[in-house]
């Protein structure tokens, strides 16, 4: 097991990792920018190192400073959290060269999944169902036309280096294809320095369902069921739940087994998420994330398994603490992302939190890095906390969530709490009847 872990992140996720380290008796090192001297993760860590000015590229993305902080403090491993360096294969390579353990997958697995064409090829080879489309990249407009005619319109053109919704174009018919194709390529080239694109059948009203997996790097892997992340705005998830209201336990076991067998076959090490679109009872792989995700607590709530604990165990060679047949899915959990943003316009609202009171009670978890009197700096993403509620079933979970939202007080800034107070009493939400476009329509018709 590790003696000391450096947490290369900030905010609620830095605290989340710190808590797992505490429980395991592992020393912690926080790193922070000059804008984050008063941050909670800095106050709670055993040691802290200032790694640079506010801009992320000079601090939380500054590999040299982070490696130096690791060597100065004698940390033997780094947990990258999510975002920042968490899916940076070069960072994983550099740490290996410095004999520092990266708490995440092997650099090669990060690299494969970072290239969406390579990721899809790998998924297909491992028996994961994918969206019908081109075999690999497409460079020629006539090839694009041929592929589109084969799979049928509408089609979507995606950047190989994209992901998370960046660099996509839809063509409804052949007349729209050439422009969509050329635009997608030139935008991909400009945004990512890589103009490789691929084509898929466009699914009109899918849900976004993702499967949590953890591999031990020795050919063993488990799945921890799925999360439904369909409620999103501009590719930012807003509300996530486990289980998905759209799946029964047979469908869950089936897709879960496909994913865990695939990552076992890869020799994958660490936590990962296999992302699918789900429509008319079918799963279609789109991407795999090779990090811990923001919404991991809903999975923890229904399985009782600490995912950061598992990440640390497999990275240190201790193996998984559980086998698949020991994992049970109990009840229902929902996460609301509390952002420092206006609940209708989503305009960021940095500033001082004058009063912060979190809900409590049975089945309520709040992961947050803020406190009364804390000044939210304007340089980073606007997530200030997550409310995760668990109940014995979805109805109880929604009741408890409504109560917890009523208790939550954040004064001094705008937050997304009012949106959740509306959503929790909406009929479609109560019925679990929503797809990836539901929230944008709801907000547009408000
Ligand atoms: C799609 C799609 C429809 N058909 N692929 C957006 C994020 C990226 N990870 C994949 N995305 C999509 N891919 C096909 N073949 C629709 C989306 C999409 C979406 C997916 C998940 C969650 C929210 C979304 C919002 C708009 C579009």
Descriptive labels:
Rossmann fold, alpha+beta, binds ligand MV4, 35% helix, D-amino Acid Aminotransferase, Chain A, domain 1, Dna Ligase, domain 1, five-stranded parallel β-sheet, globular, 3 domains
CATH architecture annotation name of the largest domain: 2-Layer Sandwich
Write down the overall geometry. Answer: globular
Oligomer: single chain
Summarize the amount of helix as a percent range. Answer: 25-40%
Determine and state the CATH class of the largest domain.
Alpha Beta
Number of strands: 20
- The N- and C-terminal alpha carbons lie at a distance of 52 Å
- The largest sheet has its strands arranged as 13-12-9-10-11-14-19-17
CATH superfamily of the largest domain: ATP-grasp fold, B domain
Number of domains: 3
**CATH fold naming of the largest domain:** D-amino Acid Aminotransferase, Chain A, domain 1
Per DSSP, the total helix count is 15
Proportion of strand residues: 25-35%
Name the ligand types.
ligand MV4
């Amino acid at each position: 097991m590790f003696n000391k872990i450096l947490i290369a992140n900030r905010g609620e996720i830095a605290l989340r990792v710190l808590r797992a380290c505490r429980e395991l008796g592992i020393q912690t090192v926080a790193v922070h920018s000059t804008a984050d001297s008063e941050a909670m993760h800095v106050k709670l860590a055993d040691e802290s190192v200032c790694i640079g000015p506010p801009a992320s590229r000079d601090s939380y993305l500054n590999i040299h400073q982070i490696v130096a902080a690791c060597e100065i403090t004698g940390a033997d491993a780094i947990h990258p959290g999510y975002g920042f360096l968490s899916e940076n294969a070069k960072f994983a390579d550099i740490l290996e060269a410095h004999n520092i353990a990266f708490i995440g997958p092997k650099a090669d697995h990060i690299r494969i999944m970072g290239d969406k064409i390579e990721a899809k090829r790998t998924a297909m080879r491992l028996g994961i169902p994918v969206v019908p489309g081109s075999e690999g990249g497409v460079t020629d407009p006539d090839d694009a036309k041929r592929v589109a005619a084969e799979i049928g319109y509408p089609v979507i053109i995606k950047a190989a280096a994209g992901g998370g919704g960046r660099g996509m174009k839809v063509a409804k018919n052949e007349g729209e294809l050439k422009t969509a194709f050329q635009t997608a390529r030139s935008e991909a080239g400009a945004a990512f320095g890589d103009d490789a694109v691929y084509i898929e059948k466009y699914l009109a009203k899918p849900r976004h369902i993702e499967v949590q997996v953890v591999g031990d790097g020795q050919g063993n892997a488990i799945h921890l069921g799925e999360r439904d992340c369909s409620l999103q705005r501009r590719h930012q998830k807003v509300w996530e739940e486990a289980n998905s209201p759209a799946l029964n336990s047979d469908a869950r076991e089936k897709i879960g087994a496909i994913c865990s067998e695939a990552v076992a076959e890869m020799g994958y090490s660490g936590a990962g998420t296999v992302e699918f679109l789900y429509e008319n009872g079918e799963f279609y792989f789109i991407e795999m994330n090779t990090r811990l995700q923001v919404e991991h607590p809903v999975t923890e709530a229904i399985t009782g398994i600490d995912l950061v604990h598992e990440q640390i165990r497999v990275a240190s060679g201790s193996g998984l603490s559980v086998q698949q047949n020991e994992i049970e899915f109990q009840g229902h959990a929902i996460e609301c992302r509390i952002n420092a943003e206006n609940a209708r316009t989503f305009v960021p609202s940095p500033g001082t939190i004058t009063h912060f009171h979190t809900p409590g009670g049975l089945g309520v978890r709040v992961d947050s890095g803020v406190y009364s009197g804390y000044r939210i700096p304007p340089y980073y993403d606007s997530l200030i906390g997550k409310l995760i509620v668990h109940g014995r079933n979805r109805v109880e979970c929604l009741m408890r969530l409504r109560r917890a939202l009523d208790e939550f007080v954040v004064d001094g800034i705008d937050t997304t709490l009012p949106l959740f107070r509306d959503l929790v009493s909406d009929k479609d939400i109560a019925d679990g009847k929503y797809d990836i476009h539901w929230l944008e329509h709801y907000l547009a018709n408000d």
